[in-house]
Amino acid sequence: MTEKYAVVVIGGGAAGLSAALVLGRARHRALVVDAGEPRNAPAAHMQGYLTRDGMPPAEFLAAGREEVARYGVELVRDRVVEVTRGDDLTGVQGEDFTAARGEGFTVVLAGGRTVRARRLVVATGLKDELPAVAGVAERFGRDVLHCPFCHGWEVRDQPFGVLATSPASVHQALMVSQWSKDVRFFLHTVAEEELSDEDLRRLAAAGVEVVPGEVAGLVVEEDRLTGVRLADGTTHPRSVLFLAPRAVPRTGLLERLGAELHETPFGAYPVVDPTGLTTVPGVWAAGNAIGFAEQVVHAASGGYRAASAIVGDLLMTDLDAAAQV
Prior knowledge:
It contains eight helices and 19 strands. Strand 1, helix 1 and strand 2 (30-34) form a beta-alpha-beta unit. The strands form five sheets. Strands 1, 2, 3, 4, 5, 6 and 19 form a seven-stranded mixed beta sheet that branches. The chain has a five-stranded parallel beta sheet with strand order 8-15-9-10-11. Helix content is 26%, strand content 28%. It has two domains: 3-127 and 246-324, FAD/NAD(P)-binding domain (3-Layer(bba) Sandwich), CATH 3.50.50.60; 131-243, FAD/NAD(P)-binding domain. The chain is an alpha/beta fold.
């Protein structure tokens, strides 16, 4: 028989596990499907999360899985390959429960399992696509970084480089100057004339040196970054390189469900209300599934909000159904 759950949480990162914790404590039968591809996996530590500052991401997730399991939440390492709307989930909460006929979702996993849920939390995150510069992928999360709030303190006062991936990279170059006064902004494939006069004035005021020319690769010695090499052969000594990856939201499941998306400078994300409810009834989204800039602490908060809204939504649905019996 196909298993029935009150909620299936798709994604086992900070957002998904936080949602699962709330659902378990509210006595709902929940399933977390985790593909095991957290965005922050390349990082040795995560920062800025009160009481967990400096904790390795893998340890954080392991602790979260242990916590949600205490409340009977089921966790499975698998991938959701298909979701369809509509099913009769009568009985999922016990013999006194009467669900509205037609509500719910059928969820198919890559491993061959099919389950049903009354509500969904989509916390599938996003994927970072790195620029095709030799050495960048190998050093990402170590001394090639993207977030000064995540890593700036740990590399403070070192010689920084910032690799332009678009004219908007000016903002990143200005931001990282808060953590080092030795910053060089490598224009790479961005032409200097693409920068506005205001950009140039701010860069000069921040003491950021603008370096034209395409970056050919990184110089690495004894497993640490020591420089940035341009296509013309010149090398700039640097020990840290910041860049902005291209964010690729994992919205395939949401799109197949018919969720409305809105375009942002960092990709298309679902339209959600303050609790994370998408335009598809019964489907919530949280974490990097709703935006590029969701840090771990934001993702955990978003999962909590979504789950608490679902608890209330299911309660009112059941009370209304019982009143009509």
